[in-house]
Amino acid sequence: MKIVTIPCLQxxxxxxxxxxxxxxAAVVDPSEQAPVRKAVEQExxxxxxxxxxHHHWDHVGGNKELKALYPELTIYGHDSDRGRIPEQTEFLxxxxxxxxxxxxxxxxHNPGHTSGAITYVFGKTAFTGDTLFAGGCGRLFEGTPAQMxxxxxxxxxxxxxxxxxxxxHEYTEANLRFALTVExxxxxxxxxxxxxxxxxxxxxxSTPTTIAVERQTNPFxxxxxxxxxxxxxxxxxxxxxxxxxxxxxxxxxxxHF
Length: 257
Ligand SMILES: [Zn+2]
Fold this sequence. Notes:
Keywords: Hydrolase, Metal-binding, Zinc
Bound molecules: zinc ion
Family: Belongs to the metallo-beta-lactamase superfamily. Glyoxalase II family.
Distance between the termini: 38 Å
Helix content: 25-40%
Protein name: Metallo-beta-lactamase domain-containing protein
Strand content: 15-25%
InterPro entries: Clx_II_MBL, HAGH_C, Hydroxyacylglutathione_Hdrlase, Metallo-B-lactamas, RibonucZ/Hydroxyglut_hydro
Order of helices and strands: EEEHEHHEEEEEEEEHEHHEHHH
Cofactor: Zn(2+)
Structural class: alpha/beta
């Protein structure tokens, strides 16, 4: 499978997934029609499928126009997003698979950012939408901190270390700057921030990341970190250091960063 990153809107990423055998393609989270269509034409592939990670407008904004251009499109989303994802044709429930061309994948239901948020998994590649970002995670619009903690740490976090994670927004620099405020001594975050800053100033993107890198640099997967605990204790000596409570405080701090 070949993956083409398609920058959309201000800082969104759509991804074109190409089955090399059949030249059929799926697009993850088409925010808008035009850049997706351009990529499809440039790659000379047949777009058969849309994979929506959640219902937010900046992830489904191209659905209607793409469906008009390619009437046979199959459009996947979570079952609980019925009525919220335009033109949805497939309503994923536990155990369901995802197919296009000769590629077959699965999905993880990871509520928190929204109640119907999912991650698509094809082998050692995953598309996390707005649940996991490099160095951070999405805001909690429809879920509790405990749900998001589980989604990140026990759901996406169970994927093998080498899994490549393709995320929904180019937020990496700001995320890592926040990460350093709570874990200033983490050399891996310092190194990654320097690398991403250089990458961005050359016009390149920071997607994808890997599970291994996120375990080292993403504070929302590091709620056990002694240095993060020290930071939180310095703000509130009575802070409850259970991981879910650490997660809740980190998310609140990030909301105001
Ligand atoms: Zn979103």
